[in-house]
């Protein structure tokens, strides 16, 4: 990837070094980090979808045009794992969060993890979290106990839990299980308790992103004039199923609720961007817009077809294929990060060390860090990203090794059959015949041709990368991953 | 598609009406039409591939940026059918060309067809053809007998025939079949004979696009200063298998011969565009760059994996799925066609009536025409394209009906199995259980969910569109399609 990308990125580099040295920041930049939920590589206009898919996304597209759009942005294959990677700068398996948290599972973010919010706090930032958390509901795990000054409402779990109530009623479930229906909660100061706001049910599911956007706009308006910079993290809920949207978005797309939901995500994002502009702090604010993982194509509900698309890639939320872990990502910092498109590899773990470097904060030195500081690349001080590989875990199992354009799998993913065909998080993970599967993602974007025969040499870097990881685990053993299937 | 696309295209419209009326052309525009061979929707940078796929395409990308890029450009599902549709403005089935011509098949372009070149001749244009023809080798079918003043070398058949010689030698085929090895030929004046130039073998396959580009550059330089406008048609051979490229392109991509070949196609296209610019006629020349059909992913040769990609769509060359008939297309006319991107539906049949209107030529009135004049849309005089549907044929069988975003199939396409898995032109076409399959291409780009149940209403427009077509056939019966399988 390096060689041919060089010229492309080098132009960027030349343009930026001048820009970088000419500017001086009066104070540390604000950072607004927006995380979409299950938005696929093939769902947004800037990535070749949008209008073509019947759901225009003009605000996200404009952000992409004004910022650096990442076409090789890699994540972990599920909501909890990816958020853990983003929040800790480490593979989720190191914090015991390599499986999606469901009611009843034991995985939860531990106090001893150093979070992105704590990194910002170490430099005096004001911090706030709004929206979906999904990193555990234990007291030590809650946002206001993990570096955020406030959690201006949100919820612990996952949006499909809004379906539980109706399903329990329809199927006449015993009343004792109703306590598992999720709540909207908030915490108004660091270290304080969470207070219930209302049920997170199908009715309120329609309005949650409207309220996240409103809270974000209020926050921006309140703190725009302050000398203290802020770090604002928005955990959007869209387009995670179920996808009923606010009334003003009903029927806006041509593909039903999924498209309406993507368009609402786009519209709410636009509201936040407009607030930054109107408050006059657009130039002083780094805006990062990411998705947490690939799309859902497989429907697990009786009423909804999930119309997400991973674009050219195979795979979806929950498996270890490219479509599950390669999704959209963009970063805008006017005057500092040159607008453009890059195919250099960046992972979601990289944001913690990268942002730490930008604001002059330290990162933990007493534990393995998997994120890599990419600030020199983003600021145009070097032509290439510092990343060439990524490991992917599901539970306590290493399921994929990415090295440059090579995808190598110690396991084999497939859709179920014999029942209604389903893939992704409803699919299957089986053993190979004893060799890793090897695919070239550039040559074969849908991972249909195992080219291990002429690429047996890749077993050497494959084992080397695994070995380097295993060495860190020997010194710092992972907690046990949540277990739902191995008894 | 209309409703939501409206605002997007309307901005274009406003911008252009002013532009259109303010300009006057001193003479008719030159037209350079370049047709790539089996280039997929997911193969080019402007369509989200290029560098991401390990094969940058900067020249085609720049042309796309300077012109109007079509994201819903529809063709026919094979080289011969698509070229027949382009050349006649009619479904290929009307000229008996709805199957790919192979040595031994009887289909050939008839003298009574009115070709695109004849349309240009009717307005006094100088016309030339260079490269792959694939519309039949009978005398009446040859370019210089179908409206082109010259055929500055090319070949009748298809590029995989360059493999015949080696395969015949390896497999010890009887010598009598060697006459079927293809030739490079040329015809230097209208109505004249074709003269052999050399064998079209694997050695020369590497150089054919270099020579097409050189011939085109010479042609442009020779005629740039003339008062007579020209119509130049380039039938590129790339990235049709086999894909060995000219030496200077060896190893240029990161994905092997397919990528090298795409990059050579891009480089050769750049040579032609540079010649237009250097000759000072860029502003007086309409440049159209199209692919004839979807990519090949399935390899029919022992030595080559075909790394084409249809991007988000399912299907490949030879089947009737979206990936087979939706491919890349762009048109540049400086000062007349506003640069941009449109998802309005345009088919390859539309170019004949559209270009005829632009140059003030008549189109045939004594036969059914399937192409639709799109000049008002392209020139910004109306916000929408005039097309909402397209029928797709293979041989004498109607295999697909497109109506707006709906894909409806009277047959069912699948890959073979039990042998090495193959799809596309090596795949299978079977009967449905008696109902058409129905897919929503916006909601479900990979056509994985037959949504006929809630869309049974579509049977009405489906039968209506088929009925309208059948009525034209009653008055103007189709010739018999070539037959290779039904005996």
What is shown here, in short?
Chains A, B: It comes from Roseovarius litorisediminis. Chain A has 12 helices and 17 strands.
Q: What would your notes on this structure say?
A:
- The structure is a homodimer of 487-residue chains.
- The first copy, chain A, has 487 residues and is an alpha/beta fold.
- Chain A folds into two domains: 2-20 and 28-387, Alkaline Phosphatase, subunit A; 390-475, Arylsulfatase, C-terminal domain.
- Helices cover 26% and strands 19% of the residues of chain A.
- In chain A, the strands form three sheets. In chain A, strands 1, 2, 3, 4, 5, 6, 7, 8, 9, 10 and 11 form an eleven-stranded mixed beta sheet that branches. Chain A has a four-stranded antiparallel beta sheet with strand order 12-13-14-17, with helices on one face.
- In chain A, a hairpin with a 7-residue loop joins strand 5 and strand 6 (195-199).
- In chain A, helix 2 (58-66) packs across helix 8 (257-278) and helix 7 (208-223) packs parallel to helix 8.
- The first copy, chain A, is globular and about 60 Å long.
- In chain A, 55% of the residues are buried.
- The model of chain A is unreliable at 1-25 (pLDDT under 50).
- At the A-B interface, helix 1 of A face helix 1 of B.
What's the CATH topology name of the largest domain in chain A? Alkaline Phosphatase, subunit A
Helical stretch tally of chain A: 12
The Rg value of chain A, from CA coordinates, equals 21 Å
**Domain module tally of chain A:** 2
Assigned CATH architecture of the largest domain in chain A: 3-Layer(aba) Sandwich
Q: What is the N-to-C succession of helices and strands of chain A?
A: HEHEHHEEHEEHHEHEHEEEHHEEEEEEH
Largest sheet of chain A: 11 strands, mixed
Helix proportion of chain A: 25-40%
**Apparent shape of chain A:** globular
N-to-C CA distance of chain A:
43 Å
